[in-house]
Amino acid sequence: MSDLIITKGQDGKLEGFGEKGRRAYAKFRNLVSEMEVGETLGFSFRMPRSPQHHKYTFAKLAGLFERQELFEDFDRLLEWLKVGAGHCDLLPGPGGALVAIPKSINWEKLDEQGFVEFHHALTDFLWTQPAQAALWPHSKAQQGYDNISNWHRDFQTS
């Protein structure tokens, strides 16, 4: 299997991105042009991640990390949020009980649509009372709600 990154050139036509991409795209075009009637060719593609959306999401998460009271490590917060958002696999643990293992949101492993879905699930999770109670264990329910509301508002305007 070969990776192929394409872009639209100045002439409005598709072309491979970079020298390696140009070679791979030429091979792909040749495969398509040499196909016989009824012959099939399978391929998959992924929508590239938006750098702006990625930066925005991680800025929001950094802002949440600064406001919350539970986690002293950003990576632990992120793992907890992945599990809360359902972005995890449930596997049997040592005693047989299911254990949530967070999935990767790595740039290469998760396309933009998957990242958007993760972002929405993460936000939905943070609006729940259990999430707010965990992040601000010494606060009343209304204070947790207000904390998330203020955090959300602050990042809506930035």
Give the gist of this structure.
This protein is mainly alpha-helical and 158 residues long.
Query: Hey, roughly how much beta strand do the residues contain?
Result: 5-15%
**Global structural class:** mainly alpha
Strand order of the largest sheet: 1-2
Question: Which residue ranges are poorly predicted, with pLDDT under 50 across at least 5 consecutive positions?
Answer: none
Describe it.
Helix content is about 50%, strand content about 10%. With about 160 residues, it is mainly alpha-helical. The chain has two domains: about 1-45, no CATH class; about 50-155, no CATH class. A two-stranded antiparallel sheet has the order 1-2. It has a two-stranded antiparallel sheet with strand order 3-4. The protein is elongated. About 10% of the residues are buried. The model has no long low-confidence stretch (mean pLDDT about 90).
